[in-house]
Design goal:
mainly alpha, 8 helices, 161 residues, 3-stranded parallel β-sheet, 57% helix, elongated
Amino acid sequence: MDDRLRWFGIASDRFVVRVGIDRQSLLNAYDEVDISLDTWPYCGGNTVAESLWQGVPVVTLKGSRFSSRYGASLLMAAGCGDLVAETPAEYLDLAAALATDPERLRRLRAGLRDMYRTHDIGDSARFAHELEQAYMQMVDECWNRSSKSEERLQYAAAFSA
């Protein structure tokens, strides 16, 4: 591992692997992280959310499938859309720019938890309301497409129970 890190110009003391730590130790370890680099093609999901909550900015590469897009969705919902890359080259550029901007890193670390709370990702009541509205719209669309009265009765029975 050390040889590979050196090849990329990373000092081995800047890279730490921890195995088998408890939940609180994991959360405390974010204090030692400057930037989280989301994985691709399968995003970190919970790791992205944890990083943001712990005040660690995340850079992600938005892919073309769900498994490579939800990191971008979380960042957008947290008000961090500027950390979402569209191409691998942009991913590297975003990470490098963030790594060389200590003032921006300081501001992000200080404000990410509040951003998380106040943007879409942290507004559970609004999310629940919008999800409920989406479900109702789907039901309405099914109702309107159904020309058979027995199908309409089934929809009505399902939503009146």
